[in-house]
Every structure is written in structure tokens, then in C-alpha cells.
Design a protein that fits this description.
Number of strands: 18
Order of helices and strands: EEEEEEEEEEEEEEEEEE
Helix content: under 10%
Largest sheet: 4 strands, antiparallel
Shape: rod-shaped
Number of helices: 0
Oligomer: single chain
Radius of gyration: 32 Å
Strand order of the largest sheet: 3-5-8-7
Length: 202
């Protein structure tokens, strides 16, 4: 006797278990339980490193929603906010140097963790003019050195006696010419990183 065979394709839609019941023409039934496992929770960070002031988005996938996403935010090194109504996409903003762990936990208790390293932006110096005029007066005598990046606070020093520096605010120094020649200004941030700028006094 030829046994009739019919095949079916099963498509998983959500985590859990389902019972499949097959009944033949004679009313005989056979059951089989199918268990659907959730895809592991995953945090998709675009990059594992950011600089202070930078921001980016990441997605949470897998598991069984809804999700709870938290930061191991010691000393407020980063901030986190949901950017989708389904709470599957988040924005993170780097605030301070260090590392933070982002943890996503689904409704079943499964979790995933991704580490984000926050670095300082490169220390850079900018000057309104790299040449100072000895004896200049008014606005022509005002020349400013500006600092970007690194980690405040900053200190600045000058090699030689060609000019002096006066701190205007946290990131700016005013340069005052004293003698003709070339001097080098060295700025050091709180982490010991340095940057230099040559200034000529005419």
C-alpha cells in the first residue's frame, strides 16, 4: 500500500511553543510540539569608540520585546535616549573620557552588553595671527590663542621672552608681544597631552 505523504513548511513568527495537529481522512490525529527560540539579544553599535561631544545611534535586536536599555554611567560619561516609539533605536552622546557599558534586557530577562570607549578629541591650537607686531596698539595688539579638544583644564607656557600670555577664559589666552623673535607656546591638558604653536614677534 502506498503511503501518501504531504509536506508543510513551518515559519517561526515569535518565541514560544506551538502544537501541530495532523488529522487524516479517517479522523486519526497525531500531534507534535514545536519550540521556537528567540534570537539572542544584540546591540548593534556603529563603532565602539567616540570622542567627547560626539553622538550616534544604535539598534537593539533579537530577544522578545519590549526592551530595557541602561548605561553603567559612572560620573555621567554618556547620555542615552530612545529615538523610536518601539524603543529599539537609541541615541548615545559622549560626555566625558572613560568607558561605559550599554546593557539591553528583553522581556524574558535575556540581555546583551556592548562597551563604548569615550576619548578626548585631539588637542588643537588656533591663533588669530601667528605674527605679532611689537608696539601695536588697539585691536591690532589683541591676538588670541584658542584651544580645542583635549581634556580641560589647560595650562600654557612660552619658551623665550618674546611674548606673555594672559588667560581670558577656559579655552583662550591673549598674547602680548614683548621682544622681537620667535617663541613657542606649549599647551598641556589635564591628561598630559600637549600641543605647540610658534609665534613670531616683529
Amino acid at each position: 500500500t502506498k503511503v501518501e505523504e504531504k509536506k508543510y513548511t513551518l515559519t517561526a513568527k515569535s518565541a514560544g511553543s506551538a502544537v501541530i495537529t495532523v488529522k487524516d481522512a479517517k479522523g486519526t490525529t497525531k500531534q507534535h510540539t514545536v519550540v521556537v527560540n528567540a534570537v539572542p539579544v544584540k546591540i548593534e553599535l556603529p563603532a565602539g569608540t567616540m570622542v567627547i561631544g560626539g553622538s550616534g545611534t544604535f539598534d537593539v535586536k533579537g530577544g522578545v520585546g519590549p526592551y530595557t536599555v541602561t548605561l553603567s554611567n559612572t560620573n555621567a560619561k554618556a547620555t542615552l535616549s530612545a529615538t523610536s516609539s518601539s524603543y529599539t533605536r537609541y541615541a548615545v552622546t559622549a560626555v566625558a573620557v572613560g568607558t561605559v557599558d550599554i546593557t539591553a534586557r528583553d522581556s524574558k530577562g535575556a540581555s546583551a552588553t556592548a562597551r563604548l570607549t569615550i576619548q578626548a578629541a585631539p588637542l588643537k591650537l588656533f591663533v588669530s595671527s601667528s605674527t605679532l607686531q611689537l608696539g601695536a596698539t588697539g585691536t591690532a595688539a589683541i591676538r588670541v590663542l584658542s584651544i580645542q579638544g583635549g581634556v580641560a583644564p589647560y595650562t600654557a607656557s612660552v619658551s623665550g621672552n618674546q611674548l606673555t600670555l594672559t588667560q581670558v577664559n577656559a579655552t583662550q589666552f591673549q598674547m602680548t608681544p614683548k621682544a622681537k623673535g620667535t617663541a613657542t607656546i606649549t599647551v598641556r591638558d589635564s591628561k598630559g597631552t600637549t600641543a605647540t604653536q610658534a609665534i613670531t614677534v616683529q
